Amino acid sequence: MSSATSPGSLVPLAQGATVHGLRRNLVQLSLLALLTLLVGATMGVERVALPPLAQHAFGVTSVLYTVSFISAFGVVKATMNLVSGRMSDRRGRRLLLLAGWAFAVPYALLIIFAQNWAWVVVANLFLGVNQALTWTMAVTSMIDLVGPVNRGIAVGINEAAGYVGVGAGGFAAGVLVTSFGLRPAPYVLALAVVVLGATLTVWPTRETLGFARAEGAAALGEPNQGVGSAPAPGLGTLAAYMSWRDRTMAAVCLGGFLNKFVDSLVIGFFPLYFLQQGLSLLQVGLLVGVYAWVWGLGQVATGALADRVGRRIPILSGICAVGVGVLLTQFTSGLGPWVADAAVIGAGMALVYPNFITAVGDVADPTWRGGALGVYRLWRDGGYAVGPLVLGGVAEVFGLSATFWTSAGLMGVSGVLVMIFMTETHPRRRPEPPLWERHPERIGGRQ
User: Fold this and answer.
1) How far is CA 301 from the centre of its chain?
2) Handedness of CA 298, 301, 303, 308 (dihedral sign)
3) Does 184 sit behind a cis peptide bond, omega within 30 degrees of 0 on the bond before it?
4) Contact (Cβ atoms closer than 8 angstroms) between residue 377 and residue 361
5) The whole model's pTM is what?
6) How far apart are CA 227 and CA 209, in angstroms?
7) What structural domains and CATH numbers belong to the chain?
8) pLDDT of 92-113, one tens digit each?
9) Residue 84 phi/psi, 5° resolution?
10) pLDDT, tens digit, for every residue of 53-104?
11) Torsion angle, CA of 387/173/289/331, rounded to 10 degrees?
12) Can you list the positions of beta strands (E) in 151-283?
């Protein structure tokens, strides 16, 4: 029997033991964070360069039609989150990560050669698959590697890397658009990012499913034999458990869903609104970049904070900050104040976003963690599908400013739901074991 794995490597369970931890797996964790940064950069290009393309390249004047690309993205990403999460528990993380990069190639090419706006909407179907497979697998892999002790900071690092990438990609897209136009320069950049990400996934990224199986076996005090602590529930049972049987998970899922209304606001409506207010596209890129950078960099600290104080307090604080930041944009004017408002929204996102994911990781058994994260991400990214349609309808009837008020109000609803229904999930701070442990029948087990 071989010795424990070296940092950043994975020896299959049949050949040796796996060792969880940040330091033990620093190389692979760093690599996965870099891959997530690249995933975020592809998204950042779109957030700045795509909304203006509708009017300037294709003559689209309807706000609702302009933001339809976000809904197309959201429908596919939400669905693929569910499929990929479940599949990764059986097939592994790395293969799906690699497949995700392949789907980004037609996304960029379709926009480069688009003849009308429908091409752009179709392109975003491919981007939705790309984001679901790559980002979901990267964060799941990082959770696998660290084990239960440092789960919050691992998610924080992952999300930080991703949204630093979003900010960098968005700012770079603003510079490229200003210098070279709306097409093709930003999407050539996206293609280069995709090629780099795929190359790093082929080598030296390693499979991490064995770590999840080892954690499940350790929970029962069993030897490291590559089997989990319990059979994984069926997809329907798991979806029902996450969506309504467990009230804490239901609050988390719905909170993630409503949270995406604000992110949809930034993607689709920030460029339209702030261009209308007289900012340049480069200045809009700065706003989106600050929002993403504060969100991204802040998640390392907020993930570590949640490992100390629990998940519920950071989540509630973040929801309040997001709502306040959105409202402030309607009471301030000028680039400087709007940059500050974007930073407040980003800080709130940093408190909320990683800790919703961590809460799911706290509750789920390691053998069906990928599936549980997939259900949560189905709900969360379903907000991308519904949010733009709701906000677009509001904008058509009441104007762009009304979308900011609507988003802030929905954050208030989210805060109330979390306050009422969510209990603490941190393994050392929760008042009782997860519902499925107390009532196995809720997750398809025997009582």
Assistant:
1) 17
2) negative
3) yes
4) no
5) 0.78
6) 11
7) 26-443 (1.20.1250.20)
8) 899 999 999 999 999 999 999 9
9) -70, -40
10) 887 888 887 888 888 888 888 889 888 888 887 788 888 899 999 999 999 9
11) -60
12) none
